[in-house]
Each structure stands twice: as structure tokens, then as C-alpha cells.
Design a protein that fits this description.
mainly alpha, 11 helices, 80% helix, 0% strand, rod-shaped
Amino acid sequence: MINWIHLITYFWVFLEFVGLYILSLSFFKIKCSKLRIMLAVVVAALLASAISNLDVSQIIRIIINLLIYAGFCLFTTNAKPIPSIFVSLFLVVMGSIFDILISTGYCAVIGISIDTLMQLKTTYIIVVTTAKFTSILFYWVLFQLRSRDRQQRIKNRYFYLSLLFPITSYLSMYMVFYGLSSSEDAPLSIAIFEICLAAANVGILYLISIIEKEAQRETEMALMQKQIDMQMQSYTALELNYRTQRKMTHEFERHIQTLQSLMDRQEYDAANQYVQNIQRNRALKIVSVHSGHPVIDAILNEKHQVAQENDVKIQIEVNDLSDVSIQTDKLVILLSNLLDNALEACF
């Protein structure tokens, strides 16, 4: 029986460190690999279990456990010493609250005292295991709520899915205890079932987190591919605009040479007629933007030409933008999208 007690105690401590890991994810970033985190959980749980068997006062045991929890946070995350201590203290406080709530709640429903519950060894194991898992579920919900700033739709879907199995587990355990009398201890098979069910719930939450990360990664890859496509379109448009402007520059040079030839021969009427013909040619009406930033100039010239081709009035006023330090790819996407949206609204 002593071996079973030690094993169950270690299992409870192991669940506490699983909860600490999930709680750490809510506030800090993980800096270790999964293998190192698993080893850290096992080693820290063994160390905390050994501390629980020491013949010291309860206050000293709590302080040592706080130091172990804080050390676990410092080893596995990028947490600083003071925040890691606060998180460890929060874990201890919430763990005690859930232990009290679950145990007193069970005693109130069944109609027994805490002393009677502790004498029902198997039932007591089940109640404490339920309290440990409830705290893990609370930390999981906290982590989900704090990480909702990205991929909101995906988070909501997997958040509700993560709650389905624990709720079902609570209902099944309620049905089991509903059939027991107030003074009857639960069979050992139910305790084993409860422990396996708690472990399965932890595994399900971990599996859902993996699925959630994969779905988020796929969404980010799709967004990245979309950005790449937009960049390629922008670069293609810039290249086309450059070639068009280069072609039109050569055309203007030829027109100037023709005008110069007419003026040299003093054929002023022919030169005037030639200028009017040029002005009626819409394709030659371009704007030359000089902001000091070649990428911005190319984008503004291109969008001005698009606006002219679609009979949209556009007026461009720019200052010296040579000091703009935004990366070229981001600048192309941002400025092109803004101007495209404005032009589409005018079409």
C-alpha cells in the first residue's frame, strides 16, 4: 500500500508541474525543446515528491516548493526571477483553492465531513485527482483566453473542442459517485479509472494544442503565400511601369527632336500643330513624381497612370521621402494596397 501511496503522490505532483507548464505558456515564451521540457517535468516532480517526505514544517515545505516551481519556470521559459516567483505563488494558491473547493463540494453533496472523506482512501484519491485536473483545466482555459489575439476563429473552434472531453469526464464521474452511498468507499477500480481519465484528459489537451498549432501554421503559410503573390504582382507592375516610362521617354526625345527640326526650319504652324497632336494623345500624359525614394516614385507613377486610364482624377503631393526606412517589400505591399483600394472605390 505504501508503494501505491508514493506512486499516487508522485502522480499528483506530476499533474501540478503539467499545470505549471500550461500556466507558464500564458505569460512567458518557451525556450527549451519538448524533450528538455519533459525531462524537466519529471526531474522537478521527483524533487518535489522527495521534499514532501521530509520532516520539516509546512511553511518550509511550501517555500522549497515555490523555489522548485520558480526554477522550473526559469529553466523552461524566458521568465525573469520575480515574475516566475509570482507565477509559482499563483499556482500554489490556485491549487489550494481547487483542493478545498472540490473536497468540500464533494462532502457537501454526499453529506459527509472532511475527516470522513480522508478515511475513505480510494474516494479521497479520486477527489484529489479531480481537483488537480480541474486546476490544469483552469490553466488551459487561461492560456486559451490570453492567446486569442491571433487566429481568433481557429482559437474559438479548438477552445470549445478542448472543453468537450473534460466536461464529459466530469459527467461520467458524477454518475459513478451518484450510485455510491455516503459512507461507502469507492472501489479501487474506480480510482484507477479516474487516474487514467485524468491522464487521458491531459493527453487530449496536449493533442488539441498540437492540432491547433498545425492549423495556425497552415494559416500563416497561406497568408505568407498570399503576401508573396502580392509582392510578385507589385514587382511585375513596377517593372512594367519602368519599361513603359522608358519607352515614353524615348518617344519624348524623338518628339523634341522633331520639334527642334521644325523650329530650325521656322515652320512654326507645323510645330504648333504637332504640339496639339501630342497633347491630344492621352498615353503621353504622365506625371513624374520625385520624392527622393525610387520605389515610392515608381508606385505613385504607376498608380497615376492607372487612374488616368480609368478617368479618375488624382492629385499627388509629396515631400522629400528619401529618409523612409521601411523595408522595400513591406513598402510595396502597404502603399500599393492603399492606392489600389482607393482607386477601386472610384471605379
